[in-house]
Amino acid sequence: MAYNEMFQYSIISALMDGVASHGPPVARILEHGDHGLGTFQNMNGEMIVLDGQVYQMKADGSVVHIKPTDTITPFATVTRFKPTEQRRATVVGKAGLEALLTGLFPNAKNHFLAVRMDGVFRKVNVRTAGGQTKPREGMVDVCARQTVHTFAGVKGTIVGFRCPQYVMGINVAGDHFHFIAEDRQRGGHILEFETEGDVDITAAQMSNFHLELPTEDDEFNDAELKLQAQGIKAVEG
Amino acid sequence: MAYNEMFQYSIISALMDGVASHGPPVARILEHGDHGLGTFQNMNGEMIVLDGQVYQMKADGSVVHIKPTDTITPFATVTRFKPTEQRRATVVGKAGLEALLTGLFPNAKNHFLAVRMDGVFRKVNVRTAGGQTKPREGMVDVCARQTVHTFAGVKGTIVGFRCPQYVMGINVAGDHFHFIAEDRQRGGHILEFETEGDVDITAAQMSNFHLELPTEDDEFNDAELKLQAQGIKAVEG
Prior knowledge:
By secondary structure, the first copy, chain A, is α+β, with helices and mostly antiparallel strands. Chain A has helices at residues 12-16, 26-30, 94-104, 139-144, 218-222, 229-236, and strands at residues 6-9, 35-39, 46-50, 53-57, 63-65, 75-79, 85-89, 112-128, 147-163, 174-181, 187-195, 199-206, 208-212. The model of chain A has no long low-confidence stretch (mean pLDDT 95). Chains A, B: One of its GO terms (molecular function) is acetolactate decarboxylase activity.
């Protein structure tokens, strides 16, 4: 796939409906990109794809380096990331990063963005989904049991995407960031962060979106996939 | 592009917001498929792509064979169509075609379908959008002035797509069919039809959806693109 095109397997509404038993090997997702987010079978942890390496961030805050041929994913989003914008800047927290991105891409509210931020974090609050207790358990229930961790004084990287409002239900409208520490031992879905000193932001606008749907997957075929915008905001916002 | 993958330029919400001044030459759309639907600059008529040929169905019910290099489109959906299902059947009208498709693809409610139907029509009611009177005029207003034609005793072809509910706003959820007569002199967006004798239906399920967004298009960048599900149903249902 060309640089800075977004590839997605399945849709977020399927996770909301608990469709998380099946999916392709992560290796097949990596054919489409080296930078991204996702989850694992049974929503067991958060996925981060950074420089082509795949990590599973687990409910205890720890991280496992994944062998992509041995692991499947029911939902993932990646891009072959080639930043078109690069800034060293002061970014106070999540709202500051969001404002900076809007400033970097003033005409991109109806497009997608791929984002990376490297720096030292005074504090990072993350949550991690601990997995389904039974097949088809929905994401709202799974995330009701999420664990929250705070990492202090940690160097690391944020990987994320911004999606336009009109993809709500297919992906998460707005910003969606995961964090992983430089030592690859800690990480999760970002709730909030505080930086220490300047950080490096790289980003690119994306105007091509490729969606691959599960096939021969009864869970997906049977799912209602009604738009649950409030629910998605609650668990992914 | 592989067979039976759906390619789309821009989103239906952009047409709702009147974003129809710019777009690529139709020739560039044809690189992705030979079967599809769309519209033209300023929503001037309905597009049908049949066996790789592009026709503009105009507000007076007539049809123009388009030279794809000389014409641009602000919105189009195509696939490289290779039917996986084929039936000769009695199809009473639009609801009958819809029921037949559901029967042919019982596990496809969350996927896309590409559809073609060839036959003799006792009656075909079509509407055709006559174009914007000014830039950014929205589709609801444009379609308020649509013309409706009835063709009687005509041999012809239906080209269409079925889209899953969750793409509402990006495309039209549900079924969307255009008609063109065998003599390529009449056509439009189908409101209702009645057949005469058996018809030939070919169709394929599609599990890959490729979306290309307009770039460097101020109209698109400025548009609100709020979901107008009721409006889309009213003008495209």
